# Entry
Amino acid sequence: MADEKNNPNNKKGQINIELDEKIAEGTYSNLAIINHSVSEFVVDFVSIMPGTPKSKVKSRIILTPQHAKRLLKALGENVTRFEKAHGEIKDYEQPPIPLNFGPTGQA
# Structure
């Protein structure tokens, strides 16, 4: 591990974040399912393809409530900047998607 104190590229207070090739490819998602508890927000990213009756969660991100709020703010700011540069994003009406997570409980 490199000595961070002697690294001239590491300015005080900056974090060096690495992005490996597999993660850099990204994962396509056209549905996000969000649940929360007192201590965390869980965001499941799903890719639903037309004509396919079954889909899998492709990625799950777990956030603290504070980070969820920061993400909401950052997404809002980015959408605003995008729309200023490219015009309004149209929100097309989507038919409701019946979701079935795992086995159905029985009484």
Summary: The helical segments are 21-25, 65-86. The longest helix spans residues 65-86.
